[in-house]
Amino acid sequence: MAKKKKRITSTRDVVRGFRIMCRLSREELAEKIGVTYHAVGSWETGMREPSFSSLNAVGKQFGPFEELFWDAIKMADR
Questions:
Q1: Taking the CB of residue 45, how many other CB atoms lie within 10 A of it?
Q2: pLDDT at residue number 73
Q3: In angstroms, rounded to a whole number, what is the distance separating the alpha carbons of residues 35 and 55?
Q4: Which residues contact 25 (CB under 8 A, 6 or more apart)?
Q5: Which of 10, 13, 20, 57 has minimal CB crowding within 10 Å?
Q6: Hey, is 2 helix, strand or coil?
Q7: pLDDT of 31-55, one tens digit each?
Q8: pTM of the complete model
């Protein structure tokens, strides 16, 4: 039986998915964007939503995938 793909439904799914795709740990992403490991963890668990400036910093970490990142964020917010 084929495994069902999980549909991205929230900002937390997008942030986590792109972080994993780029093979970054929470600690590495946090260090690159100037926030704490706990901040990244709270975004990924849905405890808190990242600010726009934090999302912007996250998006910039994905280089050639930045536009795709923003498209996914827009779809998740629908």
A1: 10
A2: 82
A3: 11
A4: none
A5: 20
A6: coil
A7: 999 999 999 999 999 999 999 899 8
A8: 0.77
